[in-house]
Amino acid sequence: MTSLGHTRNWQPCRKCGKVHGPPAPNIPREIDLTPDFDLGGITGIVLGDGNVISDKKNRGIVRLGSTEKSYVDLFTEVTSKRFPNLTVGRQDEWKTYRVPSGKWVTGHVYWARIYSKRLFEFFRPHKMNDYHWTIPPMILSNIVSKRGFLQGIYDAEGSISIGKRGKYTICLASKHKSNLIPIQEFLTALGINGAWDMHNQAVLRISGRNQCIQFGNKIGFRIARKAEKLPTTFKRRWRNSDLLPWEMKTEW
Fold first, then answer.
1. Which of 2, 3, 206, 226 could form a disulfide with 221 if both were Cys (CB 3.0 to 4.6 A apart)?
2. Are strands 168-174 and 158-162 parallel, antiparallel or unpaired?
């Protein structure tokens, strides 16, 4: 029936010969946005490394692009598990891009794309221009989704290094300090100390073996190359009581 109440006779298609009905209405597919660890992790990755855009057909797209295939594979796996009714499209291309040092290099870039208006509406207000972002209030509603977000943002923007003397350091960098202030508050609530290092960008630094072990136990990394660098045993502090009498130091 048309809007005037008349029956419309749909004619066969000239290309395939089939009779097609009216176009399906563009109804957004419903998804479960209950805050949990995986949704927090996906949010951290999208706000840190992802893009929230719309195409020429006004379709909402959430995507992640990286030169590290295992990273995009991990994002695809977690997202497909968390949203089983959504399809994560994959694509890789040979592209010339600029690295943080300013040099232009050519190599493979791997993409994961999710077409979802609901996810677009969920992330778009919090992913702003000039690398500003805010944490969705839904993610802040419970400690489990908070910890998932911390893991996701550290997977996206964090790094871990081991100095010459075996000093462990975990850094989280951003162009704007306002992005990282809530992160420092979360870490403090978990008993992890984060210090500021301000140069060309804001850096939240976790220093020391024991602090990094606390980070690994309470937050951790999902990316294997970062997780394998985390220390697993606390550094023992030797005392005179641990030594034999002739090994004790009497002067310092």
1. 226
2. antiparallel
Owner of token pair 């290092």:
197
Judge residue 245's burial from the number of C-beta atoms within 10 Å of its C-beta, 0-12 exposed, 13-18 middle, 19 or more buried: exposed
First and final C-alpha spacing in the chain: 95
CA distance 12 to 1: 18
Q: Taking a C-beta distance cutoff of 8 angstroms, is the pair 208, 231 a contact?
A: no
Which of 225, 202, 227, 203 lies closest to 215, judged by CA? 227
Tokens of 55: 């195409």
Q: Decide if 79 contacts 86 (C-beta within 8 A).
A: yes
CB atoms within 10 A of CB 36: 15
Q: Which amino acid is at 10?
A: W
Which one-letter amino acid corresponds to residue 141?
Answer: S
Name which of 89, 87, 81, 7 is nearest 39 in CA terms: 81
Query: What CATH homologous superfamily does 37-227 map to?
Result: Homing endonucleases (3.10.28.10)
The residue ranges of every structural domain in the chain are 37-227
- How would you write the pLDDT of the chain (252 residues) with one tens digit per residue? 444 444 455 566 766 766 655 555 555 678 899 999 999 999 999 999 999 999 888 889 999 999 999 999 999 999 999 999 998 999 998 888 777 677 888 888 999 999 999 999 999 999 998 889 999 999 999 999 999 999 999 999 999 999 888 889 999 999 999 999 999 999 999 999 999 988 788 999 999 999 999 999 999 999 999 999 998 766 555 444 444 444 444 343
Q: Are 139 and 146 in contact (CB under 8 A)?
A: yes
User: Considering only CA atoms, which of 98, 193, 187, 200 is closest in space to residue 149?
Assistant: 187
